[in-house]
Amino acid sequence: METKNNVTVFILLGLSQNKNIEILCFVLFLFCYVAIWVGNLLIIISVMCSPLMNQPMYFFLNCLSLSDLCYTSTVTPKLMADLLAERKTISYSNCMTQLFILHFLGGVEIFILTGMAYDRYVAICKPLHYTVIMSRERCNTIITACCTGALIHSASQFLLTIFLPFCGPNEIDHYFCDVYPLLKLACTDTYRIGLLVVVNSGLIALMTFVILMVSYFLILYTLRAYPAESRSKALSTCSSHVTVVVLFFVPVLFIYFRPATTYPEDKVFALFYTIIAPMFNPLIYTLRNMEMKNAMKKMWYHHLFWEEK
Hints:
Elements: E1 9-12, H1 19-48, H2 56-73, H3 76-84, E2 89-91, H4 92-125, H5 130-133, H6 136-162, E3 171-172, H7 179-185, H8 191-223, H9 228-256, H10 265-287, H11 290-308
Parallel strand pairs: 1-3
Antiparallel strand pairs: 1-2
Protein name: Olfactory receptor
Keywords: Cell membrane, G-protein coupled receptor, Membrane, Olfaction, Receptor, Sensory transduction, Transducer, Transmembrane, Transmembrane helix
Function: Putative odorant or sperm cell receptor.
């Protein structure tokens, strides 16, 4: 049977229908978006212009910052524009494009966090073999695998959604296009597709989260034998990673690891992994990391010194 689609434009209901709240949210998210760009660009420039780029942990951190910038830019500019608009609309093609890019970049971020956990596991549990195992070639392979896995995930989400028939209504109770709100609008039985989405998004997120937690548990177990100073440094680095993982994964699991239903709280939880986590990642990784802070100080002091010359 031919798929019928009468919808060419979707209406995004956004975060609120109250204009005063929308203006307040616009100011808040503008501040957040500027902070995301400033923080992540500082990390990218500081790492690329220092010897830290040769260390796997900072190579992955650099990739994570770039991923954060791209990921939040898929949603935040459109969200801010809609907060000031009378009518919040997105075309069908732009909606599907946003969904694909959002899940691709989200997948990249999830898998990069896994790569960072693997790097810390090797560094702490197998320190004598670290330089051999975590060679630049291995790091490039891990990043390639992250992008490939994210592409497979995103393509499957896209294919599950692109063939759905939309006959009306066309109001999406969200501030961006995502699978569950679109399933709610489809004029067909979406039970099986909803199960596939849970397997594709929810199960992947849960398995990755469990793997990450197990790896950090093994790291903590290994740290018992380390001297106090080395243990303190390793714990500081790992605690930063765990904070980022929890901040990103808990909202993701709340939304995707459940049957294909939507709740008003989904929009608030989505803010955590689309805006809040990318904003706090640079703070978490720099404030608790002495090497990163020193690299930033040296680079910017050197830059200012030569400017004064």
